[in-house]
Amino acid sequence: MTKKFKRTTVTAALPYANGPVHIGHLAGVYVPADIYVRYLRLKNEEVLFIGGSDEHGVPITIRAKKEGVKPQDIVDKYHHIIKKSFEDFGISFDIYSRTTSKTHHKVASDFFKKLYDQGEFIEKTSEQYYDEEAKQFLADRYIVGTCPHCKSENAYGDQCEACGTSLSPTDLINPHSTISGSKPVMRETKHWYLPLDKHEAGLRKWILEDHKEWKANVYGQCKSWLDMGLQPRAVSRDLDWGIPVPLKGAEGKVLYVWFDAPIGYISNTVELLPDSWEKWWKDKDTRLIHFIGKDNIVFHCIVFPSMLKAEGSYILPDNVPANEFLNLEGDKISTSRNWAVWLNEYLEDFPGKQDVLRYVLTANAPETKDNDFTWKDFQARNNNELVAIFGNFINRAMVLTHKYFEGKIPARDVLTDYDQETIAEFVSVKKNVESYLDVFRFRDAQKEAMTLARIGNKYLADTEPWKVAKTDMKRVGTILNLSLQIAANLSIAFEPFLPFSSKKLRDMLGMEAFKWNSLGSIDLLPEGHQTAKPELLFEKIEDDVVEAQIKKLQDTKKANETAEHKVEPAKADIDFEQFTKMDIRIGKVLEAELVPKTSKLMKLKVDTGMDQRTIVSGIAEHFKPEEVIGKQVCVLVNLEARKLRGIESQGMILMAEDADGKLVFIQPSEIVTNGSQVK
After folding, report:
1. Regarding the domain delimited by 7-119+259-327, which CATH topology (the fold level of the hierarchy) does it fall under?
2. When you count CB atoms within 10 A of the terminal residue's CB, does the N or C end of the chain come out lower?
3. C-alpha angle 33/34/37, rounded to 5°?
């Protein structure tokens, strides 16, 4: 039996403060969270909505060095941009703070110290790269060298961008520091680790047995991690930007951002409610819900709960309704390539149309799989749904009321059977919308809410009050009374989804903000109540407006191609004997599967004509496993075997990379025998 909770703490993933937010962020996390919170508030439930900026970590320092400013300057700039974007789109946080606040530093430090004092950490000494010129240990992204896999000379210490292989800094050939350019040396350094394996059994029961109702993508990713076995994870690192490790002898070390950031939910609550925050985080009658994207599932379902369990006094999340990713015009959203619709820019181009974007992103939400945003779909949903269905119904009902009854709610006479059928139909919408909202299916909930407008449109079209007005004004009054009651219901049903339009509709109707339990009533507007002058609730978006947005993206793509498509200079000459040592064969992919815990690696079984071998390739962001099975490919078969994520890879698949970073298989122009040599 589902437990009844007294209150709900809702958190939304802390966006990284090294750039503005875009539609992918809004669709994946913040609109769904806001819909849910507004719904709970309408139901008079006790709810707290916590947000904030994530402001520590290496990407911040890299951005600061690139722009020649301090890390604090970067986070100050983007925190304010992000916060304003959320305010502009009606994301109704109770607090939106930041992880550079004094409150957060204290709460995070105290949290670490308590776990340390309880003996929850493991201390390990290891060797890491150190820049003797810069006099600092190097984070993985501050080390560049030659990839041992594909020989790209610009591979980072954690990953090769060229072939997608996950790396360790020690894997690199000829590594050098991006700070000083010098060759780093290995030095011993001590760090503290959270032993996730200690909590594995408890997590396995809590997730796999007690929370089978979680979304399939969340449950599946957690199961994959648990089945592979959890390992201790460092909670500190050598860096000069972040929260100092609060221990003697830990100078130059800060809390790892993955440990520091989720504590931000707690510290922001402390900042808002210094005297009563504990009931939102420690009371067993409080329900904790995390809204995140799929890239944060492990941190919120395994790592953060392990931290909370280790501390001992906190509740664990009851649900983590993570969404998949939103693509843009068929391509992955990329901040580095400026392939995005930025929220601050959207409002410059579409002033006052926040709800249009909220509606479209919810209608196309990536709830179960990655989805695609296109400007043509944006235009179609606005014109064919918001304007033609919702807006059209409101406008007709309001205009007719002003035409025949001077804008006053007319009296309701005897109801016909058709009136009763219409009432029964729209009253049932409340239950249907609730059934979807309660299980985080916001796309279906919004679609069901739109059913009210469809019912209203059909009712007006079927009853034709403009014709009835010639013979029976009492009947016209009844028709318009019911139509306006439906309109009032729409303002309640759409309050979680379209808060700006719902308020505009309430203002036109001259009505108060009713609570959720009023949804389905046919007595929201009393007889004789005066409505305001009708206004268009939504406006049609013309072709030229959308074409301008498409052109902006096309120009961005062309600029990227110009900037990125620089032919790399030829590498040093090799003699013919070196060339002949390469054995490239045609092979056929027999099996393919994703490598767990990675975003880019795919495990392939390839028939090389000589044998069937396993090859791990960094192509998972470009192809699905089912898309590569059966393909003939070029394989470097005499490449020295190498372990990637514990899997021995016996060769390399040859790929071409175009200007967009898209990978394309090198293939024979016609089918040949597996094992055929490439000469």
Report:
1. Rossmann fold (3.40.50)
2. N
3. 85
Q: What is the DSSP letter of 200?
A: H
CA torsion 109-111-115-121 (nearest 10°) is: -60
> Number of H helices and number of E strands within the chain?
23, 25
Residues 6+ apart with CB under 8 A from 156: 140, 141, 143, 144, 167
Domain 581-665: CATH class, spelled out:
mainly beta
Q: Where are the domains of the chain?
A: 7-119+259-327, 122-192, 375-571, 581-665
Which amino acid appears at position 417 of this protein? Answer: D
Please provide the DSSP assignment of 491-509 as one string. HHHTTTT-HHHHHHHHHHH
CA distances from 273 to 50, 87, 92, 204 (A): 11, 21, 17, 33
Output the six-digit token pair for 293. Answer: 């994207």
SS (H, E, C) 141-187: HHEEEECCCCCCCCEECCECCCCCCECCHHHCEEEEECCCCCCCEEE
Region 609-617: what's the mean pLDDT?
Answer: 93
- Cα–Cα distance between 640 and 460 in angstroms, integer? 74
Domain 122-192 carries which CATH code? 2.170.220.10
Those residues with Cβ within 8 angstroms of residue 568's Cβ, 6 or more apart along the chain or in another chain = none
Phi, psi (deg, nearest 5) at residue 234:
-60, 135
State mean pLDDT over 275-284.
Answer: 98
* Span of 66-70, 164-168, 318-322 with lowest mean pLDDT: 164-168
Is 375-571 assigned to CATH 3.30.70.790? no
Give the Cα separation of 264 and 269 in Å (integer).
8
Residue 390 tokens read as 């919702």
